[in-house]
Amino acid sequence: MDTVKSFLRSVMDIAMTVIPLTVVLGIIFPANVPFIGASALNEISALVSNLGGSGLAGIITLGILWALMRR
Question: Looking at residue 67, what is its pLDDT?
Answer without folding.
Answer: 80
